[in-house]
């Protein structure tokens, strides 16, 4: 009886070091696809440092998306989840229209994109051993969106952007690593909630807050709140009343010996001209500037009052 030929070797039959080297050269999409081939491949990948740069998620009622980026890789994985559009698919079939999918894109059709995204995010973060970095939640609010702030998988994110979310069962308190918060037409956040947060940059647009609310926010900071705060921008639906916002606060005009004129910001943001701002200093020595223009309030904290070039000018 003739001896049966042996099957060709697979990648898994190769020595451990070459396997590690091969995976290190894979991009995000290829790594995820490879991990889904066999359980032992997935478990092996979990032991590696994949040089993950970021994981971003976009969440909306009919369409969600994950983006995985590696350092040293020009390509990113885009993982999309959407509700099937039967009318569009039927029309495409009639016209024989086809769409070419990129090799770096995974598309899944489902009836509940948010639920499926949550499953895939939990699997992905366990695979690459890296938390979600950026979160964008888009309303109007729907049942699955109201519980998203309770989802522990996003509590380590650095950037959170929410649009048109009026209600939520959770809070922002568990987001201990949050560096930037941006809310647009989100009525769930009240002025008193900021008292419990430690966030560097906060932007709130189209808010129903009042001038009295803003005065309380500033007072909470003066009392010692949010030592991390660098910039707070609030856009009200109605005009501010500067006299109400600043009532009872000991503010002063700009003193060029205490701080520089322009508040520096990293790209892509431009520096903020604080020449006409009112300054306020709290007991621990932190200095802040308050700018009020029409419906916008800008509040900046001077953790460094002079850049090196400005300090040299002062010495001269």
UniProtKB/TrEMBL annotation:
This is F-box associated domain-containing protein.
């Amino acid at each position: 009886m003739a001896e049966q030929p042996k099957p060709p070797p697979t990648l898994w039959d190769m020595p451990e070091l070459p396997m590690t080297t091969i995976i290190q050269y894979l991009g995000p999409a290829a790594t995820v696809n490879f991990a889904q081939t066999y359980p032992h491949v997935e478990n092996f990948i979990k032991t590696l440092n994949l040089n993950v740069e970021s994981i971003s998620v976009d969440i909306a009622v009919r369409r969600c998306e994950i983006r995985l980026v590696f350092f040293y890789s020009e390509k990113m994985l885009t993982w999309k989840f959407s509700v099937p559009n039967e009318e569009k698919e039927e029309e495409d079939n009639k016209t024989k229209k086809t769409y070419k999918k990129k090799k770096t894109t995974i598309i899944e059709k489902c009836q509940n994109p948010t639920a499926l995204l949550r499953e895939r995010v939990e699997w992905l973060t366990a695979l690459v051993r890296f938390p979600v970095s950026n979160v964008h939640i888009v309303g109007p609010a729907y049942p699955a969106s109201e519980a998203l702030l309770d989802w522990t998988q996003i509590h380590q994110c650095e950037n959170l952007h929410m649009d048109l979310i009026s209600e939520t069962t959770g809070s922002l308190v568990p987001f201990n690593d949050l560096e930037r918060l941006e809310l647009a037409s989100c009525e769930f956040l009240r002025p008193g909630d900021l008292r419990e947060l430690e966030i560097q940059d906060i932007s709130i647009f189209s808010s129903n807050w009042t001038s009295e609310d803003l005065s309380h926010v500033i007072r909470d900071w003066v009392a010692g709140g949010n030592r991390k705060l660098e910039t707070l921008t609030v856009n009200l639906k109605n005009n501010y009343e500067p006299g109400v916002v600043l009532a009872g606060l000991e503010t002063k005009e700009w003193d060029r010996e205490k701080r520089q004129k322009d508040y520096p910001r990293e790209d892509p943001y431009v520096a903020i001209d604080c020449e006409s701002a009112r300054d306020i200093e709290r007991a621990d020595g932190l200095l802040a500037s308050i700018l009020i223009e029409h419906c916008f309030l800008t509040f900046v904290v001077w953790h460094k009052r002079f850049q090196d070039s400005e300090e040299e000018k002062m010495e001269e």
